[in-house]
């Protein structure tokens, strides 16, 4: 995966503490999406959660570093979900002081290019309906609404998730 001035690296359990710190940098994001700040196991969940019938060989968690080496974003991809030619973007998080400068759009374009180069035909994702800024980003970058679903968190909070897809 390539994007000028940024480095991408697949990360794993050895990077859990660094990812946890990144996720804790914006408790407001998690309050919108999950109804509470990220718990102590947020990074571990990001690294390990998978849809049914998918294995660890299908999941890739990428850390994004700027030119100074600072961790500024993280995202995860699941290959071949929900079908062989579709990849799923399970999570995209940019640190607050790197938002509103076009990074999200550039990351999505790099992700789409990577999926297409890897023989994927579409990128699918789910966005919490109350996450207006993320939804606007996805709309601007060519994602189209497919359907909605409901998700209930362990804390009892129920959210509507809009499932979106972009054909590549």
Written overview of the protein:
This protein has 168 residues and is α+β, with helices and mostly antiparallel strands. The protein is 28% helix and 33% strand. The protein has helices at residues 16-23, 27-34, 42-48, 103-117, 132-140, and strands at 7-11, 59-65, 71-78, 86-94, 122-128, 144-152, 158-167. Strands 1-2-3-4-5-7-6 form a seven-stranded mixed sheet, sandwiched between helices. Strand 2 and strand 3 form a beta hairpin.
Could you give a quick summary of the protein structure above?
By secondary structure, this protein is α+β, with helices and mostly antiparallel strands.
CATH superfamily: Gcn5-related N-acetyltransferase (GNAT)
> Compute the gyration radius: what is it?
15 Å
Q: Give the helix tally.
A: 5
Oligomer: single chain
Largest sheet: 7 strands, mixed
How many extended strands? 7
What key attributes describe this structure?
alpha+beta, Aminopeptidase, 7 strands
């Amino acid at each position: 995966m390539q994007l000028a001035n940024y480095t991408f690296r697949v990360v794993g359990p050895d990077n859990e503490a660094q990812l946890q710190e990144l996720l804790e940098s914006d408790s407001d994001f998690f309050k919108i999406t999950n109804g509470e700040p990220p718990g102590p196991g947020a990074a571990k969940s990001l690294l390990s959660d998978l849809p049914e019938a998918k294995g660890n060989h299908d999941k890739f968690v990428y850390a994004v570093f700027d030119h100074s080496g600072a961790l500024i974003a993280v995202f995860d991809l699941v290959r071949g979900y929900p079908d062989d030619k579709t990849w799923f973007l399970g999570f995209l998080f940019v640190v607050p002081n790197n938002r509103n400068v076009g990074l999200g759009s550039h990351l999505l374009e790099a992700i789409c290019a990577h999926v297409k180069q890897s023989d994927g035909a579409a990128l699918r994702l789910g966005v919490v309906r109350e996450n207006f800024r993320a939804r606007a980003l996805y709309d601007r970058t060519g994602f189209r609404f497919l359907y909605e679903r409901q998700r209930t968190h362990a804390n009892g909070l129920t959210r509507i998730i809009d499932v979106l897809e972009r054909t590549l």
